[in-house]
Amino acid sequence: MTSTMTVDELERAVTRIFRRAGMNEIQAGALARVIAAGERDGCKSHGIYRIEGVLRTLKAGKVRGDAEPTLEPGAAGAIVRVNARGGFSNPAFELGLPTLVERAREHGLAAMAINDCTHFAALWPEIEALTAHGLAALAMCPSYAAVAPAGGAKPLLGTNPLAFGWPRPGADPYVFDFATSVAARGEIELRRRAGQRLPEGWAIDAEGNPTDDPEAALAGAMLTFGGHKGSAIATMIELLAGVMIGDLTSPEALEALGTTTLAPAHGELILALSPEAFAAGRPGDPFARAEALFAAIKAQGARLPSERRYAARARALAEGVALSADERAALGRFEELGLDAVA
């Protein structure tokens, strides 16, 4: 049996849960917004499902629920640096966003490095926050070692998500957000809970053998999409969003955390680019040219990334977010018990 909540009601409910667990308003509000966005957009692997992991990580003392992120002094020019102060990445991004937008408009491009953060969320809300300002954007971060490199048999890389967005005046932005593993780790966990097998090529077991068993996959390693190509992109993310910004790589994050059952601590890199600045002095309007490309793609019967997500969003805004009885019960349990609701 399902019931519905408005997106605002869900956001308020999740905020109450995190406040009940001892988080300050800065942390609780930012996390609630991104979790509500996951449910709103039909992405269950980044919605209510993530609350339990947040609470476990908080209870284990691996993240600061009272953290107040700060803009780091001395980061000039096109680089914006935000220290999450041991809290979650989401409030750190929200703090740095206005400065990132300002620097991107000033210089044509700018980068935000978020350090000392815990990460658990989808990247598309951050990308959309930048496309709403007319900027193209990329975001990336490591995770913890759970993915085998191409040709390898042991966890080394993270799921290492990468997201890209292009602003579309008068239309939903072009946004693509994906894990460099074949699937997000949360997708495997949801299939485990549902008693479902995995598609071929998603994972290997602890001995390096292909498996369709979610339990064996979680004990073994996930695989990158596209074989060596996905492996190379995942490695690039380790370098750019870990090594280059002076933060943890996925193996280092796992070593510091000691488990894959909690949200990992590392850094994040976000790039913002001004299409007008890059196209200045060249013929044609960059936004009009982009629309011609999108129209040509759709003329072949193909869909653009995020179209299903935008359709789910429209339904949720009009009809509410559909929640199962188990999900409603979980929300009530988390709000009533706080940290006592998790082991």
From TrEMBL:
Source taxon at top rank: Bacteria
InterPro entries, per database record: Mal/L-sulf/L-lact_DH-like_ah, Mal/L-sulf/L-lact_DH-like_NADP, Mal/L-sulfo/L-lacto_DH-like_sf, Malate/L-lactate_DH-like
Keywords recorded for this protein, A-Z: Oxidoreductase
Molecular-function GO term, any one: oxidoreductase activity
Record field: transmembrane: none
Protein family (similarity comment): Belongs to the LDH2/MDH2 oxidoreductase family.
Listed name of the protein: Malate/lactate/ureidoglycolate dehydrogenase, LDH2 family
Native source species: Oceanicella actignis
